[in-house]
Amino acid sequence: MPGRRRTPCWSHHSHVAIRQGAGIRFAKTSRILAELAGGHADRTWDKRIRELIRPGLLALDGFAMRRLTAPQADDLYELFSERRNRC
């Protein structure tokens, strides 16, 4: 049963983040990647990445469940790098 062991862990981290006043976003990795790909298509990628950088906690469900394309890997790298640099 995938995900059953991780749920309590994310739940705990979510509660801690909320207590510290941080925003939280939980999404499937595939949806985040589709959102960023759409940003490339309509030239709103910068706006979309800024929206993903904003929350204090970004939980990606299904991360590394599928092989990534080169553009998807680049988008995730940019997302992680930008989130790390904002701290």
From TrEMBL:
GO terms for molecular function: ATP binding. InterPro entries: IstB_ATP-bd, P-loop_NTPase. It holds the Pfam family IstB_IS21. It comes from the Bacteria. Residues 16-85 form the IstB-like ATP-binding domain. This is DNA replication protein DnaC.
